[in-house]
């Protein structure tokens, strides 16, 4: 296990987001383009979960997002954060709060 100092962990902005819209990225079998409400506005997140999650099934779900990750372009679409999921042998499992909380709530 690679340990990091607590000061590095404090740099991460992990927040609850609510998926407002989701669609498949044309030309990819696994990428979904998500519009996620993070409380201070909507962000576009490109996530590699499309083989295991249908866009229409995740709209309205609350998810955990790494909000201050450098933006990255995937297949011509800018991703403005990263959805966090458990990496299992059966595909990604979305991390979600056990009860509803407002978008933008900090995860600590």
Automatic annotation (TrEMBL):
Assigned keywords, A-Z: Aminoacyl-tRNA synthetase, ATP-binding, Cytoplasm, Ligase, Nucleotide-binding, Protein biosynthesis, RNA-binding, tRNA-binding
Where does this one sit in the cell? Cytoplasm
Catalysed reaction equations from the record: tRNA(Met) + L-methionine + ATP = L-methionyl-tRNA(Met) + AMP + diphosphate
Database matches in InterPro entries: Met-tRNA-synth_bsu_C, NA-bd_OB-fold, tRNA-bd_dom, Tyrosine-tRNA_ligase_regulator
* Gene Ontology MF terms in the entry: ATP binding; methionine-tRNA ligase activity; tRNA binding
Pfam families, per the entry: tRNA_bind
EC number assigned by the record: 6.1.1.10
**Where's the TRNA-binding domain?**
8-108
What Gene3D superfamilies does the entry give?
A: Nucleic acid-binding proteins
Q: What is its main location?
A: cytoplasm
SUPFAM superfamilies annotated for this entry?
Nucleic acid-binding proteins
Its GO CC terms? cytoplasm
Its GO biological process terms? methionyl-tRNA aminoacylation
Per UniProt, subunit arrangement is:
Homodimer.
Q: Outline what the protein does.
A: Is required not only for elongation of protein synthesis but also for the initiation of all mRNA translation through initiator tRNA(fMet) aminoacylation.
What is the protein's name according to its record?
Methionine--tRNA ligase
